[in-house]
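TICKET: design request
STATUS: open
ATTACHED STRUCTURE:
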C-alpha cells in the first residue's frame, strides 16, 4: 500500500486526493484474504485506481493442481543461507479508520 501511495504521489496526484478503502468480506474474491482499493478524488468523485489483494499463491496452486505440473522454482545452494525477516503486525482497524 505504501508503494502504491508513493507511486500515485510520484505521478502527480496530491496526497489529500488519495485514500485507501478496505473491502468488506462479501466484496472480496473467494480466495482473497484481504483486499484494499486505492481511490483517487477526481472531478466526478472518488474513483478506484488500484486494487490490492492478498491472494497468496492461489492462482499458482490452481494452475499446478489443474495441470499436474509443479510450478515452483528452486535453486540448490552450496551452503545454507541465513535470512533475517521483519514481520509487521498491522492494526487493520486503526489503519482503515485513519485512511478511510
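STATUS: resolved
RESOLUTION: sequence designed for all positions
ATTACHED SEQUENCE:
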Amino acid at each position: 500500500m505504501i508503494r502504491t501511495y508513493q507511486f500515485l504521489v510520484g505521478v502527480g496526484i496530491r496526497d489529500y486526493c488519495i485514500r485507501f478503502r478496505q473491502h468488506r468480506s462479501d466484496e472480496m474474491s473467494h480466495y482473497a484474504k484481504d483486499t484494499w482499493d486505492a481511490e483517487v478524488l477526481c472531478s466526478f468523485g472518488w474513483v478506484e485506481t488500484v486494487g490490492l489483494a492478498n491472494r497468496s499463491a492461489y492462482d499458482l496452486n490452481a494452475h499446478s493442481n489443474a495441470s499436474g505440473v509443479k510450478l515452483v522454482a528452486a535453486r540448490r545452494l552450496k551452503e545454507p543461507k541465513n535470512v533475517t525477516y521483519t514481520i509487521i503486525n498491522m492494526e487493520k482497524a486503526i489503519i482503515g479508520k485513519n485512511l478511510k
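CLOSING REMARK: The mean pLDDT is 88. Strands lie at 18-22, 34-42, 45-54.
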